[in-house]
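Notes from hallway chat w/ T.B., transcribed later so I don't forget. T.B. wanted the structure written out for a chain they're using in a teaching module, and asked if we could keep both sequence and structure tokens in one place. Agreed to drop them here.
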Amino acid sequence: MSATAEMTAPAATKAPPPPSHGVDTPALFATIGVVKGQPELAKFQFRTQSQWLSGTHMQSTMSGFSGAGGEHQHKATTVADADHPAVLCGADNGPTPVEWLLHALAACLTAGIANIAAARGVMLTKADARVEGDIDLQGILGLSDEVRNGFQAIRVTFQIAGNAPQAKLEEIVRQSVARSAVFDMLTNGLPVAVSVQA
């Protein structure tokens, strides 16, 4: 947290649930309270620096971001490789870009499920996802203008368990979908600007 952004939570009327399954619930509620009182702290920018290595192999580095009134560094820099498998003319040095997209969706939904469950006093024992995306390569190979380049459909199946009835666990998943940034971007679209510096 930057010294330029003084975060003081308003007085709570009711104590939040205790930390649960790795979620610091009091900190989560405090953050919500602070952002509610100072909405400008909600503005974040996440960044990646990417480099082409060879063929279809590239590497991205994620180390810092801005938000809550200042610049921040991750605890550790993450380096992520992407490539195509040999059957798609690559060297298989990492997952394909579309697999990273499936990972991002699963990660966003899972984080939401963990936070929402903790906020509602539900102790999770399992929240595993299988994510499948169907793609027809005729589009990206330039063989058909009738086939889109990207996924035609994505399916997410959660196996979830915890100390709550099935209906409550299903509601937690639905709430995560309703609040997921990645789900929102995939289903509602957003402006993406690409510029070139040669």
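Follow-up for T.B.: The CA atoms of residues 82 and 100 lie 8 Å apart. Might be a good example for the class.
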